[in-house]
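Re: the request from the purification team.
They wanted to know what the chain is likely to look like in 3D before they choose a buffer screen. I agreed to run a prediction and write the result into the notebook, where they can find it.
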Amino acid sequence: MRQAFNFLILAVGLAGCGTATQTPADTRNDKEGPLPPGEGAFGSAFTWEWRKKDPPAPASPAPTGTAPQDANKEQQEFEEWRAWQEWKKKNAK
């Protein structure tokens, strides 16, 4: 009985080998050869070319009237932060 089963498995395996010579439907792109640069999944993101970044924009000078106001505001924020730190030290849990 076991030999019959092994023979059946061998026959099915050999029969399957005959159908392996058929090629499946071709699902590749219709174009021949490799895709040109700029096409495909990543476009031109992954190419061998090195490209220089755009130069940084020139810095515009700050208006002269706002500089003292900003300094006063920063000084006030620092004083508030310092007072909060001192309060936190005095009122520790």
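For the purification team: Residues 67-90 form the longest helix (24 residues).
Please add any questions underneath this entry.
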